[in-house]
Structures are given as C-alpha cells and as structure tokens.
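Re: the request from the purification team.
They wanted to know what the chain is likely to look like in 3D before they choose a buffer screen. I agreed to run a prediction and write the result into the notebook, where they can find it.
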Amino acid sequence: MSIVEAFCDHLQRQNRFSQNTISSYLRDAKKYIEFLDNMKIKLENTSQATLIAYIISMQKSGKSNSTIARAIVSLKVFYDFLKTQKIIDIGKIEIEPPKLEKNPPQILTRDEVEKLLSCPKEDDIKGIRDKAMLELLYATGIKVSELINLNLDDINLEHGYIICKNKKRDRVIPIGSYAISAVEKYLRYSRPYLAKSKDEEALFLNFNGERMTRQGFWKIVKFYAQSAEIDKEITPHVLRHSFATHLIENGADVRAVQQMLGHADISTTQRYLQVANVKLKEVYQKTHPRA
C-alpha cells in the first residue's frame, strides 16, 4: 500500500471529513510527493524547510493564494498522519497561509443565466437531463456535491421543494416552476432510459446508469458555457453565487438566503450584499437626474 493510499484509509476511518475534503487532502498530498520525487528528497528526510521550499515553488508557478492556503492545511493533516505512523515528526507546522483577497463573488446577470439555461436541447435524453440539472442548481443555489447526491426521495415536485442532506443538518429548499417543469420532464422522458436498475436511488444519472459524478457535471457546465458564448468563467459555483445575489437584489432577507445556502456564518452570505449594492449604485448613476 502506498503512503497516499494509507493516508486515504486513515482519513476515511476518521469519520469526520467529507468526501470532498478527503479528495482535496489526497490531491495536495500527491502533488507534494511529486515535488519531493522531482527534488530527489525522501519523505522521511523532509523538514519545515522542505515545506517552505514547496510553498515557494507554488508561488513561483503562479498558484493562487487560495490554492496555497488549502495546500498548507492539507499538508498539516498529512504530517499529523505521518507522525501517528511513526514515519516522521517535523513538529508543529508554523507556516502561515497567505492572506486571501475577499473579492466580490463572480456572478451572471439574469440575461446571462437565461442564455445559459436555454442552451440544452429539450428534444433528446441528454439535453432534457442537463436542462433539469442546470435549472435545479440555479433554482436552489445548492453545491455541485449536493446536487449529484440528491436521491429520488429528496425531491417533492407536488409541493415544490428539495431536501438537501448533509452531516450537520438537513435543509428544505423551495424550487420554482421552471425547475419543477424541467425535473418533471427529465423524470418522464429521460431518466427511465438512463436507469439500468429499478433500485437506483440517485436522481441524476449518467449514460452508464450510475449517479452523475462531480467531474461529469463540471464538463456539462463547461460545454454549455461555451455554447452560450458568455465572456465569463462559468462554473457550478458561479450559478450558486448568482442565485444568492439575484434573491438579495429582489429583496430577499439575508437570513433566509443564509438558510437556503447552508452557511453557518451570516458574514459569508453578506458577501452577496456587496454585489447587490454595487448593482444598485450602477442603477442610481444611470437613472437619477442629479447623480
């Protein structure tokens, strides 16, 4: 068993990390080990100076502050594991992560959202499924991991809501008529052809009849982003940002948006107020006679 495989087994046995967090830790650990291999340094011979050299190499290669900060957290967990396995103990890692710039989140305008959501063809299995996924993502503001983890029992089209389940608490999120219509069409005309087993619980399936993967949905978003010819980087998280900002622009209560997004701290949700206020200022400047 490789050290990364052992690290993965260790993380999964901890039962306190989400699958996304585990994937992130493993990815960062692999990149660090690749760096050590290139430098011809054995893992058991590393030190805090080695870590600093790695961070400097990341900076020189143009990695963002957020990527570097995440790597530092991952490597702290990795070295904790190495200590428990009596492989190496380099002491408490004192490296401070770089400060993250708190830029306003990237969002799409309402016209851009309409353009994106109108791209999937609604006359074939794939287009109907993709339309339903995109509509539901924008209608609820849930994360990609939450979208692909939805089961058939988690959505109630009659009463217009989904149940988003996670380890901390479940969230009940309302969905609008467009998303309801798109998901109804998917369940009627697309999913029956994708499902290979009647026992499959996953709501959204790929063409192997299995639960849609995170990578698979990212490819879907990237494809339609190119088709829409919108001059912005569009990711699933941009739709989440757009959902929150558009709600607040239309007068939604920040705490209600916080609950729908599942933010533990309201200050995270208040970032969207900044975007909304900028929009209001632009409208004022354009429309007020004495602006």
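For the purification team: The two ends are 68 Å apart (CA to CA).
Please add any questions underneath this entry.
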